[in-house]
From TrEMBL:
Protein name: phosphoserine transaminase
Endoplasmic reticulum found in the keyword field: no
Cofactor(s) needed by this chain: pyridoxal 5'-phosphate
Function: Catalyzes the reversible conversion of 3-phosphohydroxypyruvate to phosphoserine and of 3-hydroxy-2-oxo-4-phosphonooxybutanoate to phosphohydroxythreonine.
Gene Ontology biological process terms, A to Z: glycine biosynthetic process, by transamination of glyoxylate; L-serine biosynthetic process; pyridoxine biosynthetic process
């Protein structure tokens, strides 16, 4: 290891945080949170200050994503991991299909497989670094995949499944994709995410943009007699969200920080502008990797390379841990590969909060470090 190597200051990014989650959080948002004082933090989430914040975030998300008429923004406590269970209890009627092409797409499939009240799901698998495609199947009432597979840096399109049974839902995990990837919400019934990635906030919440069909499905299952623990009760979450509140005590600071990031995104120009920003970052990263002698994009299909999480395979003569040690010693953080993938790899977040100029600076730092190792 050579962590004592000092990268020249003129090469360093202005902000060295490139983690895939939790992600870079602008310091100005933390300053704004501190300035709220006791008017917001430490007060009841049933009272107007917090309910106004929930209503504000709902309005901001609606403006950012421009969903079709009838779609609703629904909040719950627990993050995307909790929402997989919410969906197995409250959105899958009998049988789901899951595209599995990485760790997180696999986790939702595992939850559905373990649910004894559901039939075994249909699984369509792709090798890590590749994209699986949905296929219509009779009897499948919910199709599920991730807009962005955070573990591998694979980006998937959001679209209806041709030939699917009438009324089948499309459930898209957008945890690392929302806010940084283009999307037409008319192509999905439930586009759900947590705020600690593209929305530069903290964890502890799930957010779902739900179509009228998804809301009707949730209410129908809720009235069917199926046992659902209170924590995963989707009709209750819908009812509370309509009142600008959450059923359980929310992470108020998380909501506030998300609201600050949404304000910045909308002032920047909305989803079109944030996607232009992630596209600029990813063009820089992948273009550099394709020219590099010792690194290459892990995802071979350019169309499937994520705009928000870039994965780079390294030559076998290069030790990613040694690179990471030098980077961290110089204030460049969290470029680690996904641990369970087990590859000699770097993984670099390019969420909207990450400055594209900092991605360019990172590539220069990588060249400098490897030249000296």
């Amino acid at each position: 290891m050579s962590p004592d190597l000092r990268i020249p200051a003129e090469l360093l990014p202005r902000d060295g945080r490139f983690g895939s989650g939790p992600s870079k959080l602008p310091v100005s948002h933390l300053d704004a949170l501190a300035a709220t004082g006791t008017a917001l933090m430490g007060t009841s989430h049933r009272q107007q200050p917090v309910r106004s914040l929930v209503g504000q975030v709902k309005a901001q998300l609606t403006e950012l994503f421009s969903p079709p008429d009838g779609y609703e923004v629904v909040f719950g406590v627990g993050g995307s991991t909790a929402f997989w269970d919410v969906a197995t209890y409250g959105l899958v009627a009998e049988r789901s299909q899951h595209l599995v092409y990485g760790e997180f797409t696999g986790k939702f499939a595992t939850a559905a497989t373990a649910a004894p009240w559901l039939a075994d799901p249909s699984l369509v698998r792709g090798q890590p670094g590749t994209l699986a495609q949905p296929r219509a199947e009779s009897g499948v009432d919910a199709y599920a995949w991730a807009h962005n597979e955070t573990s591998t840096g694979v980006m998937a399109p959001v679209r209806r499944v041709d030939g699917a049974d009438h009324g089948a839902l499309v459930l898209v995990d957008a945890t690392s994709g929302a806010g940084g990837l283009p999307v037409d919400l008319a192509q999905a019934d439930c586009y759900y995410f947590a705020p600690q990635k593209g929305f530069a906030s903290d964890g502890g919440l799930w957010v779902a943009l739900m179509s009228p069909a998804a809301i009707e499905r949730a209410q129908r299952i809720g009235a069917s007699g199926r046992y659902v623990p209170a924590f995963f009760d989707l009709p209750t979450a819908i009812e509370n969200s309509r009142k600008d509140q959450t059923y359980n005590t929310p992470a108020v600071a998380t909501l506030f920080l998300m609201g600050e990031q949404l304000r910045w995104m909308l002032e920047l120009g909305g989803l079109e502008a944030t996607v232009a920003r992630t596209r600029a970052s990813s063009d820089t990263l992948y273009g550099w990797a394709e020219r590099c002698a010792w690194a290459r994009p892990f995802v071979s299909d350019p169309a499937a390379r994520s705009l928000v999480v870039g994965t780079l395979d390294l030559d076998e003569t290069i030790d990613y841990e040694e690179i990471l040690a030098v980077l961290r010693a110089n204030g460049i953080l969290d470029c680690d590969p996904y641990r369970k993938l087990g590859r000699n790899q770097l993984r670099i977040a390019m969420f909207p909060a990450v400055d594209p100029d900092d991605i360019a600076a990172l590539t220069r730092c990588l060249d400098w470090v490897v030249d000296r190792l």
